[in-house]
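Researcher: We're reviewing a set of sequences before deciding which ones to prioritize for further study. For each one, I'd like a predicted 3D structure that I can look through quickly. This is ABC-2 type transport system permease protein. If possible, include the structure in token form so it fits the rest of the review sheet.
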Amino acid sequence: MSAGTIHDIGYRHYDGRRLSRPYVLRSLYVHNLRAAWGLGRPARAKVMPFLLVAIMLLPAAGDVAVVAVSKEPSTLWRYSAYPVYLQVVIAIFLATQAPVLASRELRFHVVPLYFSRPVGQLDFVLAKLAAMTSALFLLMATPVTVLYVGGLVNKVPDSVDHALRYLGALVGVGLFAVVLAALGLVVAAFTPRRGFGVAAVIAVFMLSSAFVLIIQGIAEAETNFAFSGWMGLFTPFNLVDAVQVRLLGAEKTAVAVPPAPLGGPVALLVCLAVVLGSTAVLYRRFRKGADL
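Model: Here's the predicted structure for ABC-2 type transport system permease protein, in token form for your review sheet.
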């Protein structure tokens, strides 16, 4: 029997500075934000998000060109209306990218690996929600900014009002982003297969919009306009539009909005409940995934 050999592989304990919780949270956020845009992934993963960005920008660029040629600033699209007009494109972006953030770790059962290190479960969820919110904000705010810059270049009257409407629209875009991100991630987290996740997210947004439109049409035919406005709270785009109209002074884009003075505060509270509730559901979902 030959004698055994002990090899010195030079192992040393780590004695350096240990990074803090904010660093971990920031790293998770950056990783998920890059994943939402397909960065650091194969080229085919970048096609869909950047194609949808181009589609989002086309109407804004075309409208600015029309204003430049016609010299009619009044033809510039309303900033607050842009996400509502392009809601199909936004829903497709959310449907294709939310499963990338919410379901890959669950599908491959690697969530326990994250939590085997000092990564808080709530931090894990908040990083994903913040990353998806940021991706949606960039998707919507970029064309709105193109409209704003185009208006300045074409010398729209009353530049102060122009700037205030732009800032109000950015607040609305931020609210759109966080509400849509929360709902999309919840749906995607319960459909580990990406194809099912894409279909489920689109179905939730499209079917809810169709259902609400049918009910609103019936209510308005019966001249029950208040009920029609309250029904808008059951679809995310109309919900945020109600906040824009009642609290941010924007013009109505949805079919109907809840009546004042309660419409705005109630819509904002519903938005807050959606985000907090979705965060709690995601927390429980990933916590359960860590126990598998």
